[in-house]
Amino acid sequence: MIRRPPRSTHCISSAASDVYKRQVKYLKTLLKGFPKEYSSYSHDILTATYFIVCSLDMLKSLESAPFTKKQIIEWVYSHQLPPTSKYCGFLGGNLLPISDFNPACHLASSYCALCTLVICGDDLSRVDKRLAASLKDYQNPSTGCFQALPISWDSAEEDLRSLYCAFNIAALLNDWSGIDKPKALQYLKSCQSYEGGCGWIEFGEAHSGLTYCTIASLGLMEKLGEIGNKSVVEFALNRYDGGWNG
Predict the structure, then answer these.
(1) Which stretches of the chain drop beneath a pLDDT of 70?
(2) Where are the beta strands (DSSP E) in the chain?
């Protein structure tokens, strides 16, 4: 019987180190500026920056980034709408002029802005004090769910992801005054399907991403026991098939 030689831990470590270095280099390059192929995503540059900063922080390489944390903080605040604006929050990037039709203060942009500021060590003291209270303009009073923009409900798209962003904003600012928590809780509980996971509407098909948004939001409200946690775990475990699927 021919035996294979034992794997070299040195080779594995060397390969992992090479991947790590390439990932860090790639992220630092993106932080300097996106290539022209990504120009169509300029309206979401704040969200993209959050993922870059978060990744560099997880890889313990944020300190050696091409910009200091203070510079990143100032850049993020430069996207905050002025206090004289009708709306409040953070712009995602290079957007159209602010108007009633295009308020531009997307919940995901504000969520990513706050997360980036916290990662960089900011105390959020310069965040518009109206932001937490303004979340009421994003919540549907009938369903309890949230939309991404404070526009007419006739053209709105309710989404668990928007609810998740709103809950994180409230938690980060420690101000839930703009959220009808009982109504939101009622909505979250209705999203759990017979599969154990959660969909975006009652009786909807369960999805891993939406299940995460539901569980995370319940956790932020300290209401994890409000849905069947055992069935959620079973649903999540069944999503593994050589890799995780939705």
Answers:
(1) 1-13, 15, 94-104, 152-156, 242-246
(2) none
